[in-house]
C-alpha cells in the first residue's frame, strides 16, 4: 500500500469498480437464459402446439380456460378413439351417468354399430352403401386383433373407428371382454342410445331408415335369454355360482345382440356376476352364450325381448352356423331369410323378426351388391 493512503478508501474504490462488472455478468447470464427459453418455447409450440406448451409450463392455467369448462367438452364424442386407458379405467369412465335426466342441449340419439372382428371388414362396401346419407344418426366402433392396422380411406365411415383392442378367443372370457370393451368405448359418446353387436360376416337386411325405426321404436332390447333344460343349457351351470346365480336364473342366448344404454351400463359396471362367470363358466360352458343373458335376466328381465334380431342358419348342423359364399347368394336364399317368420314386436305379432344376417364370406360381396337394391332396399 502506498504511504499516506487510507486503507478503507482503497477498499471502497475496489468494490466500486467490481460492482459494474458483476452487474454486467448477471445481465449477460440473464439474457442468455431468456434466449434459451425463447428458442425452446418456439420449438415446443412448433411441434406440440400452443395448448400443450401452456399446459406443461403452467398447469394452473387450465381451469381458467373457458373452452375446458364449456358444455361442449362433456357432450362432444372423442375425436380419436385410440386411448391409453386400461379396461379398468375405461369401464370406470364409461359408467358415468348424469343424475339430471333432462338434457340441457339438443341431443340426437344414435345407434352404435359395434363390429367384433379378427381383422379386415370384407363386406365394408355393402355397409358403406347402407350408412350413406345418414350421418349424425349412427356411430361405428371396430374391435379387431391388436396387430391389425386398417387402411380405410379418409372418406370411409370406418376410417379411424378402431378402438384399443386385445386378443379374444371364441367361447372364452376374452370374447366377453372384447364385447364389454366395445360397449364401454361407445358409451363415451353420450349421444349413443342403442348398441348393436355385429361381426365381419354380418349384413343388414333392410335399409338404414327401416333398421333405425325398428330399433328406436322398440320397447325392448333384442337379446335372446331362454331357459334350456338340456345339457347345452342348464347342463353347463356350475353350483359354485351360488348365491349370485341360481340355476333357475341360468339363461342361454345368441352372442349377437342389440341393447339400450341402460342395459349397456349394467354390463360395463358389473363386478358382481363377472367373477363368477370368469371362474366357473369355461368350455364346454361358452360364456358368451350365457353371461349377458343370465345377468340381464336377473337385473332387468322386463326390458328384454328374449330374441335376437340377427338371422343365422343352423340347419346344416354342427357347432357353427352355415357360411354363405358367392354361389349361395340367390333369390331362394333371400326368401328363406325373409319369409316364414313370426315373432312379437312391442307385444304384437310381426313377420319382420330379423334386421341382420350372418355368416357371409368375402366371396359373397359381389353378388350381394348386385341383389341388394332388389332384396335389401339399398
Radius of gyration: 31 Å
Q: What is the global morphology?
A: globular
Q: How do the helices and strands follow one another from N- to C-terminus? A: HHHHEHEHEEHEHHHEHEEEH
Return the structural class: alpha/beta
Strand neighbour order, sheet with most strands = 2-1-3-5
CATH domain topology of the domain at 86-306: Spore Coat Polysaccharide Biosynthesis Protein SpsA, Chain A
The number of helices is: 12
Measured distance between first and last alpha carbons: 107 Å
Commentary on this structure:
The chain has 378 residues and is α/β, with parallel strands linked by helices. Among the domains are: 34-65; 86-306, Spore Coat Polysaccharide Biosynthesis Protein SpsA, Chain A. The protein is built from twelve helices and nine strands. It has helices at 7-48, 50-57, 72-75, 87-94, 124-131, 173-187, 208-216, 261-269, 274-280, 291-300, 331-338, 365-375; strands at residues 110-116, 138-143, 192-199, 203-204, 258-260, 310-311, 343-345, 348-350, 356-357. Strands 2-1-3-5 form a four-stranded mixed sheet. Strands 4-9-6 form a three-stranded mixed sheet. A two-stranded antiparallel sheet has the order 7-8. Helix 5 (124-131) links the parallel strand 1 and strand 2 (138-143). The radius of gyration is 31 Å and the shape is globular. The N and C termini lie far apart (107 Å). The relative contact order is 0.11. One of its GO terms (cellular component) is membrane. This is Core-2/I-branching beta-1,6-N-acetylglucosaminyltransferase family protein.
Summarize the structure.
The protein contains twelve helices and nine strands. With 378 residues, it is α/β, with parallel strands linked by helices.
Amino acid at each position: 500500500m502506498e504511504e499516506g493512503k487510507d486503507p478503507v478508501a482503497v477498499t471502497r474504490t475496489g468494490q466500486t469498480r467490481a460492482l459494474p462488472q458483476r452487474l454486467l455478468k448477471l445481465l449477460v447470464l440473464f439474457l442468455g437464459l431468456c434466449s434459451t427459453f425463447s428458442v425452446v418455447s418456439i420449438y415446443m409450440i412448433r411441434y406440440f402446439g400452443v395448448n400443450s406448451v401452456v399446459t406443461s409450463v403452467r398447469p394452473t392455467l387450465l381451469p381458467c380456460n373457458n373452452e375446458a369448462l364449456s358444455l361442449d367438452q362433456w357432450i362432444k364424442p372423442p375425436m380419436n378413439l385410440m386411448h391409453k386407458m386400461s379396461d379398468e379405467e375405461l369401464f370406470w369412465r364409461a359408467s358415468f351417468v348424469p343424475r339430471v335426466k333432462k338434457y340441457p342441449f339438443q341431443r340426437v340419439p344414435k345407434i352404435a354399430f359395434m363390429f367384433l372382428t379378427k381383422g379386415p371388414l370384407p363386406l365394408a362396401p355393402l355397409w358403406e352403401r347402407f350408412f350413406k346419407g345418414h350421418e349424425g344418426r349412427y356411430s361405428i366402433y371396430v374391435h379387431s386383433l391388436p396387430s391389425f392396422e386398417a387402411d380405410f380411406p379418409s372418406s370411409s365411415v370406418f376410417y379411424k373407428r378402431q378402438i384399443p383392442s386385445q386378443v379374444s378367443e371364441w367361447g372364452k372370457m376374452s370374447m366377453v371382454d372384447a364385447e364389454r370393451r366395445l360397449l364401454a368405448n361407445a358409451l363415451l359418446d353420450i349421444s349413443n342410445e342403442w348398441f348393436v353387436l355385429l361381426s365381419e360376416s354380418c349384413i343388414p337386411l333392410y335399409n338404414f331408415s327401416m333398421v333405425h325405426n325398428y330399433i328406436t321404436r322398440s320397447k325392448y332390447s333384442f337379446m335372446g335369454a331362454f331357459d334350456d333344460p338340456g345339457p347345452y343349457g342348464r347342463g353347463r351351470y356350475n353350483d359354485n355360482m351360488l348365491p349370485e346365480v341360481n340355476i333357475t336364473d341360468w339363461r342361454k342366448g345368441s352372442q349377437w345382440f342389440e341393447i339400450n344404454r341402460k342395459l349397456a351400463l349394467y354390463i360395463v359396471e358389473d363386478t358382481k356376476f363377472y367373477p363368477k362367470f370368469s371362474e366357473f363358466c369355461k368350455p364346454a360352458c361358452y360364456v358368451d352364450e350365457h353371461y349377458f343373458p343370465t345377468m340381464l335376466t336377473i337385473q332387468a328381465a322386463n326390458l328384454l325381448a328374449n330374441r335376437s334380431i340377427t338371422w343365422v342358419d343352423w340347419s346344416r348342423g354342427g357347432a357353427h352356423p352355415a357360411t354363405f359364399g358367392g354361389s349361395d347368394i340367390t333369390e331362394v336364399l333371400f326368401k328363406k331369410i325373409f319369409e316364414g317368420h313370426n315373432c312379437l314386436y312391442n307385444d304384437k305379432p310381426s313377420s319382420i323378426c330379423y334386421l341382420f344376417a350372418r355368416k357371409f364370406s368375402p366371396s359373397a360381396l359381389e353378388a350381394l351388391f348386385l341383389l341388394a337394391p332388389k332384396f335389401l332396399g339399398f
